[in-house]
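Pasting as-is:
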Amino acid sequence: MRAVIATGDDRITIEDRPVPEPDPDEVRIAVRGAGLNRADLLQRAGLYPAPPGVPGDIPGLEFSGIVDAIGASVADLAPGDAVWGVVGGGAQAEYLVTRADQCAPVPDGVDLVAAGGVPEAFVTAHDAMFGQAELAPGERVLVHAAGSGVGTAAIQLARANDCEIVGTARTADKLERAGALGLDHAVVVDSPFDARTVARQITDAAGPIDVVLDLVGGEYLSTDTAVAAHRGRIVLIGTMAGAQATLSILSVMSKRLRIYGTVLRPRTLDEKAVATHAFTTDTAAWFADDTVRPVVERLVPLADASDAYTLLASDATFGKVILTP
């Protein structure tokens, strides 16, 4: 089979590897779509080693595809089933093996290739908003990096939950496109970033924020605590602006804020399975009636994976870049 190989020195190659065989509790997937994520850029640079049990040099954290073969102990899946899921690595290849409980059925009405860009972004957003921040209908949500894969997923999930949504991005174009997904208030973030200015713009546009999804990190945390409502919840998901921040402890104390951190890759297989199936169960009807849908910047053939990585690194994408084996 052909597979993307991350050499750890910022290079991507395509190599032939043996087709993997499933263990008794595993299934083999003929991959149809494999979304790219910023973690893949880190792995390409040698900064994000794969966890034990997955190919160390084949990146890819999410997939969609057709069950091709099943292990002797697998009872809930059969060859021909259309599934998607989150894995620790190895999805950017023609075939993938994973534990059967890591797979969930692709909802009716979702294009199978585009589905490859759903699991990582949507499970992350769903778990952050509902599993951790306990988002309630009608609350006000702030999404930083609104045009990213997780950002576009979060906007749609919040809209389906009848929430008011504020989004930030570096360009007005991304925010305009996010408006079609349900974004209510748009704030363009200028460079250099000024936490007080952005906080004032957000508050003027919408008022205090109940739940913040911070996909950027760095000094955005100062904005988060400034705009958060009493008993607001802040979920830290990304570090594009840096892994260090200034925290106003008095704001956290006086507003009784809750701050969460989340990442999918280091979680146990059992935790990933729970998160994936909870998301799929909760959102199947939304996908079926097109309330929620994959947002795709570009489909790229597996052979051109290097170009796909360059596109993702440009920070010019809206939604997901998906490899198509």
